[in-house]
């Protein structure tokens, strides 16, 4: 019915507006959520000067993606890393940091305003701590990995307590249950 | 800009190793930091100062959490006006 397809088009517009971002990847290309439509996305917010949590969560994310890649029947999954420390985490810093993790893990950075907007769109708490004598600081932030479906609809989020296997199992469940919004 | 690059994976691993050695020493000496000075210095030399602070807080938190789990929670005594 016309009403149903109007409703679905509304949902698609809402999905694009919800959790959208305007950032730059490590090759310098502008990226927004629209660029990732058609793929599942697993997105983590962190920073390269992070003492322990971010490397651990990125290991976990990488492992979850690897587990899912083993099944060729599953749709493609794009891992993303968004910095919460744009002052220090430029493209070069992100490239250096992310090469220790999944080869397809893509880093996104931007101006402080763009990063603030992206974090806000995902309701991620970000708070840079005080600088020490060397100008070093840590950034306190929510530790969450978000799952976004190929229509750009937010589907789930995973915290510290989930293992890679649990994340993979959950993502697979969402993939199996997924019904695309009609164009 | 602090001008310092973020620690590499190798540097992270070395820092975590030094931290774990220091913490193991504390564990076997009832948290007597005086008995673990050498490992403390090694830990501080292997990790950015910000990380040392972070891990010190983490250790305090873990100890507190353990205390809650084993002893249960007792509210601080009201010893007059603070």
Automatic annotation (TrEMBL), chain A:
- Localization: Mitochondrion inner membrane
GO cellular component labels = mitochondrial inner membrane
**UniProt keyword terms in alphabetical order:** Copper, Disulfide bond, Metal-binding
Q: Which cysteines are joined by disulfide bonds?
A: 50-54
Q: Where does Cu cation bind?
A: 50, 54, 141
* Source species, domain of life: Eukaryota
| Its membrane topology | Single-pass membrane protein
Provide a GO biological process annotation: mitochondrial respiratory chain complex IV assembly
A single Gene Ontology molecular function, please? metal ion binding
Q: Which residues form the Thioredoxin domain?
A: 12-176
Q: What is its main location?
A: mitochondrion
> What Pfam families does this protein map onto?
SCO1-SenC (PF02630)
What is the similarity comment for this entry?
Belongs to the SCO1/2 family.
Check the record and name the PANTHER family matching this protein. ELECTRON TRANSPORT PROTIN SCO1/SENC FAMILY MEMBER (PTHR12151), PROTEIN SCO2 HOMOLOG, MITOCHONDRIAL (PTHR12151:SF2)
- The name of this protein is SCO2 protein
Native organism: Spizella passerina (Chipping sparrow)
What lineage is this protein's organism placed in? Eukaryota, Metazoa, Chordata, Craniata, Vertebrata
TrEMBL record, chain B:
In Swiss-Prot or TrEMBL terms, this protein is called: COA6 factor
**UniProt xrefs under InterPro entries:** COA6, COX6B-like, CX6/COA6-like_sf
A GO CC annotation recorded here is:
mitochondrion
Lineage, please? Eukaryota, Metazoa, Chordata, Craniata, Vertebrata
Does Disulfide bond show up as a keyword for this record? Answer: yes
* Record localization: Mitochondrion
Q: Which UniProt keywords apply?
A: Disulfide bond, Mitochondrion
Q: Which gene encodes it?
A: Coa6
Q: Which Gene3D superfamilies match?
A: Cytochrome c oxidase, subunit VIb (1.10.10.140)
Q: What does the entry give for GO biological process?
A: mitochondrial ATP synthesis coupled electron transport; respiratory chain complex IV assembly
- One Pfam match, given by its short name, reads COX6B
Q: Which PROSITE patterns match?
A: CHCH
């Amino acid at each position: 019915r016309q009403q149903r397809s109007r409703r679905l088009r509304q949902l698609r517009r809402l999905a694009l507006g919800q959790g959208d971002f305007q950032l730059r990847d490590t090759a310098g290309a502008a990226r927004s959520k629209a660029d990732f439509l058609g793929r599942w996305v697993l997105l983590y917010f962190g920073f390269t000067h992070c003492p322990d949590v971010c490397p651990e969560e990125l290991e976990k994310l990488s492992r979850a993606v690897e587990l899912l890649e083993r099944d060729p029947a599953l749709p493609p999954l794009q891992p993303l890393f968004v910095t919460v420390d744009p002052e220090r985490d430029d493209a070069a810093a992100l490239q250096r940091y992310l090469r220790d993790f999944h080869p397809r893990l893509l880093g996104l950075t931007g101006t402080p305003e763009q990063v603030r907007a992206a974090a806000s769109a995902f309701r991620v708490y970000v708070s840079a701590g005080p600088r020490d004598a060397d100008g070093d600081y840590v950034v306190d932030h929510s530790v969450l990995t978000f799952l976004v479906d190929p229509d750009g609809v937010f589907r789930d989020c995973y915290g510290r307590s989930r293992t890679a296997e649990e994340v993979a199992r959950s993502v697979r469940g969402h993939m199996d249950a997924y019904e695309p919004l009609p164009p | 800009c602090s001008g310092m690059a973020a620690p590499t994976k190798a540097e992270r691993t070395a820092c975590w190793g030094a931290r774990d050695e220091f913490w193991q020493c504390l564990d076997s000496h009832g948290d007597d930091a005086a008995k673990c000075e050498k490992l403390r210095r090694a830990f501080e030399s292997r990790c950015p100062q910000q990380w040392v602070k972070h891990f010190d807080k983490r250790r305090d938190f873990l100890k507190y959490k353990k205390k809650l789990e084993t002893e249960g929670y007792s509210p601080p005594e009201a010893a007059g006006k603070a």
